[in-house]
């Protein structure tokens, strides 16, 4: 069964965010009354920075100390937990039946061993464990049929999600320097030598490779045979993955931190504190919006809205994606966000330094 991305689109999320604004800003009114309230909070101070995933029934928390917890999306009640040992070193991804992640533990003589793991979504019981090349950080993704893992040490592998059986492996000549990105058929990698590499997820073969003038800092792989890369000098290049021939190139004011696919545009976050909406067909800037600080990876909250969350805490800004107009800001005063809010089913999850906070517009009813 194919592994799917953990983020489940929230069909009514725009109303949820607007309704939260209505609660926090007395002067803001809506035509239709909405029953919005905080549904639950789950305290934890150990959440990993990339440690939150969710589907339409549960939230999966990757925590320091090798601990994985599953809590009900609707009640905030803990469903199970698993102490895996060592440390969790990857993001968490899920399919219809399993949770996947990578761990690292100390072996004999001070050596380390890294493992790829599959756990049951229902019970947290281990389905299988597979050895992988040692890594300090690992990145998980998926193709149409495989689970794909890239170790920062420069090894890339694909395994069958049902058994952990190795399908193929590839070794780069340098360490991976920035989080890779995946489509259903290809993977985009940047190494410490400033090489940008496109790998086929069917075979592990290199499809194309080029060397940038400056260190890459953000990658985006699309499903249309194109990709985008941003670098430390603020350049963004949109190119064909087969030839790496540039379709267009533009330059912004600071290093590129993230790139988000919005369909006919790319939302580019830069360390000049601007977010830019850039047309994919010609590289034209549709709009740009200055933020008070550098931001987390922009989030797509609905077909119409995106969210920008500052790394220093404070208000999260919700924007109309087509025009960059601010709907308003959301001040959730529970501490600093440690990653972008996550939308799933009828909930929006705010991962704060003090725990997970869930809001809803359905009266917090059970599914």
Describe the fold and architecture:
With 367 residues, the chain is mostly beta strands. The chain has a domain at 177-295: Beta Barrel (Lipocalin). It has one helix spanning 13-24; strands spanning 37-43, 47-54, 58-63, 67-72, 78-83, 87-88, 93-94, 98-106, 112-120, 126-132, 138-142, 147-151, 155-159, 166-171, 181-182, 186-190, 195-200, 206-211, 216-221, 226-231, 235-240, 246-251, 256-261, 265-270, 274-279, 285-290, 299-300, 305-308, 316-320, 326-330, 342-344, 347-352, 355-360. The model is unreliable at 1-36 (pLDDT under 50). The strands form 8 sheets. Strands 6, 7, 8, 9 and 10 form a 5-stranded antiparallel beta sheet that branches. A 4-stranded antiparallel beta sheet has the order 1-33-32-31. Strands 2-3-4-5 form a 4-stranded antiparallel beta sheet, with no helix packed on it. The protein has 1 helix and 33 strands. It is globular and about 50 Å long.
Low-pLDDT segments, ≥5 res: 1-36
Remind me, CATH topology of the domain at 177-295? Lipocalin
- Assembly context of the chains: single chain
Q: Whole-number radius of gyration?
A: 20 Å
- In CATH, the architecture of the domain at 177-295 is Beta Barrel
Beta-strand percent range: over 45%
Cα end-to-end separation = 25 Å
Q: Class of the domain at 177-295 in CATH?
A: Mainly Beta
Shape: globular
Structural class by helix and strand composition: mainly beta
Could you tell me the mean pLDDT? 84
């Amino acid at each position: 069964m194919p592994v799917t991305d953990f983020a489940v689109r929230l069909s009514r999320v725009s109303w949820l965010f607007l309704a939260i604004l209505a609660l926090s800003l007395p002067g803001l009114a809506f035509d239709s009354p909405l029953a919005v309230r905080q549904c639950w909070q789950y305290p934890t101070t150990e959440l990993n920075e990339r440690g939150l995933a969710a589907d339409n029934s549960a939230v999966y928390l990757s925590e320091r100390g090798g601990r994985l917890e599953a809590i009900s999306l609707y009640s905030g009640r803990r469903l199970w937990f698993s102490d895996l040992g060592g440390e969790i070193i990857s993001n968490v991804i899920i399919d219809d039946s399993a949770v996947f992640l990578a761990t690292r533990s100390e072996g004999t003589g001070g050596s380390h061993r890294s493992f790829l793991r599959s756990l049951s979504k229902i019970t947290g019981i281990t389905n299988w464990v597979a050895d992988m090349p040692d890594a300090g950080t690992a990145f998980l993704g998926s193709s149409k049929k495989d689970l794909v893992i890239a170790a920062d040490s420069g090894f890339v592998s694909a395994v069958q999600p049902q058994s952990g059986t190795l399908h193929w492996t590839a070794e780069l000549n340098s360490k991976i320097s920035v989080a890779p990105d995946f489509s259903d058929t290809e993977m985009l990698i940047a190494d410490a030598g400033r090489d940008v590499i496109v790998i086929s997820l069917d075979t592990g073969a290199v499809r194309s490779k080029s060397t940038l003038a400056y260190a890459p800092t953000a990658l985006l792989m699309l499903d249309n045979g194109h990709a985008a890369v941003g670098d430390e000098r603020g350049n963004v290049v949109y190119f064909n993955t087969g030839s790496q021939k540039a379709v267009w190139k533009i330059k912004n004011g600071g290093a590129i931190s993230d790139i988000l696919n919005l369909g006919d545009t790319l939302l580019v976050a830069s360390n000049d504190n601007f977010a830019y909406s850039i047309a994919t067909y010609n590289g034209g800037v549709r709009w740009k919006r200055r933020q008070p600080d550098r931001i987390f990876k922009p989030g797509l909250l609905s077909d119409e809205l995106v969210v920008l969350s500052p790394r220093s805490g404070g208000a999260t800004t919700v924007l109309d994606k087509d025009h960059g107009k601010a709907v308003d800001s959301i001040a959730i005063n529970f501490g600093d966000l440690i990653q972008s809010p996550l939308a799933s089913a009828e909930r929006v999850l705010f991962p704060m330094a003090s725990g997970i906070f869930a809001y809803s517009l359905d009266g917090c009813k059970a599914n």
